[in-house]
Design goal:
The protein is flat. It starts with a helix and ends in a 9-residue tail after the last strand. Helix 3 (75-88) packs across helix 4. The strands form two sheets. The chain has a three-stranded antiparallel beta sheet. It has a two-stranded antiparallel ribbon with strand order 3-4. It is 43% helix and 32% strand. The protein is an alpha+beta fold. The protein has four helices and five strands; from the N terminus they run αββααββαβ. It has helices at residues 3-27, 68-72, 75-88, 102-117; strands spanning 34-46, 49-62, 92-93, 96-100, 122-132.
Length: 141
């Protein structure tokens, strides 16, 4: 391709992309509401000792007419329920102290969400990120 054609394409292309985005933005359905809960520190407890902490970022997918703004005031209650559950029955993966047992943690938070927000207000819990405090000197699969 010639240099002149590249320059012409680079000036025409962004305008075409913007027009395409505007059209796509009008027809795109609104995404389902979600509440983000960043940086919850959960303990990894084995043999009665805290071995590590995992910092978990979550996204609660909302349903039943719930909005993120309405449930944002209940975020501390979700955090508290999650930390209490982690100390009561740790979400430990056997032989690996650097990750949380995701399905067990999500199921526990879903049970707590019914009491905190009401039935059907939280439809799904998604783990966005897991970051261990210590990455070395701990067991890992």
């Amino acid at each position: 391709m010639r240099r002149r054609d590249l320059i012409a394409a680079s000036t025409v292309l962004p305008a075409g992309l913007l027009a395409g985005e505007a059209i796509a933005g009008e027809d795109a359905p609104a995404s389902a509401p979600a509440l983000s809960i960043p940086g919850v520190g959960l303990p990894i407890i084995t043999e009665g000792r805290i071995r590590n902490y995992i910092f978990v970022s979550l996204k609660l997918h909302l349903g039943g007419g719930a909005t993120a703004e309405a449930l944002r005031v209940k975020e501390p209650f979700f955090r508290d329920a999650l930390v209490r559950a982690a100390y009561r029955t740790p979400f430990v993966v056997a032989g690996d102290w650097t990750v949380i047992d995701g399905p067990a943690m999500c199921a526990s938070l879903m049970r707590s969400a019914v009491a905190i927000a009401g039935r059907g207000k939280v439809t799904r819990v998604e783990i966005v990120n897991q970051m261990p405090r210590r990455r070395t000197g701990v067991r890992s699969g």
